[in-house]
Each structure stands twice: as C-alpha cells, then as structure tokens.
Write a structure and sequence with these properties.
about 200 residues, alpha/beta, 2 domains
Amino acid sequence: MIEGLIGPEGVFGPDLTARTNWDSSLHVYRARGGKEPRLPPAPEVREIASGDVIETDHWRLQVAEVPHAQPYLTCLAYRVDTDAGSLVYSGDTGPSPALEQLAKGCDLLIHMCSYITGTVDNRATQLGTSGHIETARAAAAAGARRLVATHIYDQFDQPGIREKVVAEMSRVYDGVIVIGEDLMQLSLKPEMPGVFR
C-alpha cells in the first residue's frame, strides 16, 4: 500500500520526483533551511496485529481484532495509555468481547454507533457494526468513563432523535455520552465531566 502511494510508480511518485529534483522546488526547500540532496519519504512500516503491544517512554499502544468485514479485512481496535489517561478507538466493529476487554476502565471510548438498534435487519450488518444500544452495552461492560459515539448514519439527524438515542443509551450505560461531530476536540481529562475541548 505504501509503495502504491509513494513509490516511484505510486500515486504520488511523479509529485515526489518533482519535489526532490525540480530546481524550483529545491530552491524553496533550501530557503526553508533544507540541505540537499532532498530525499523522498522513506517510512519504516511495521504492520501490527491483534495482541500486539508497542511501548515508548510516554505511551503504550495495545491492539485487538474486532468483528467487522472478516474474512475480507482484518479489523482492529486500539488502546493508547499515557500519563494523561487512556483512549480506546473501536474502529468499525460489531459487538465484541475483545473490544470490551481492551477498553476495561478506559477514560475515553470512541465507539462506532452507526444506526439506531432495531432498524437494521441484515445479519452481516448486525454482526459487523454497532447500533446505539450495542455501543452503550460495550461501554458499560468495559467500565469506560466516557463514551463518544461515532460513525453515525443519517437516521440520527431527525429532530429529537439524538436526544432520544442518548436517553436510551443512558439506561444501559451510566457514564458521560457524547455524540461525535466532525472536527470535535476531546480531552482525556476534562476539568468537568462532559466538558470536551
């Protein structure tokens, strides 16, 4: 995939060749303090899999496989623990004991909440995605402190529906519930419950 993006024959190959060879681009590079030769990106790629743990002095990442589009894709959820707190991102997933285990006691669970439970009759969709009640159950089982519902379908955009959905989720999960919005900024440790920046 990386080769297909930034390799010499990749999608950005001609652009990168220009940026690393064209004198005008090199002039801008030098003006910004760059020293030639200007090299193309050479990322070190390490594929991760379920069960992997990556640690640094400042954070720890854990990975778990979650049900979504198997056997076509391997779908993963992630947990990041830092001194500031813990964040779990479900990715696209249906109900998952592995995700619940990964999210145990997390400060912030960002979880797929595509549809209103009971409105989807396709079995593959029910197994590989989550409705609002399934999302609330996962947060409750994990003991997550706060839940952000994301990947929301347009059913939630009708007047009064978001309030109804949050009220129903609150009967299952007693933590803070937020319906995610594009460009929303969240803090792991807000000063007050439910305050996000």
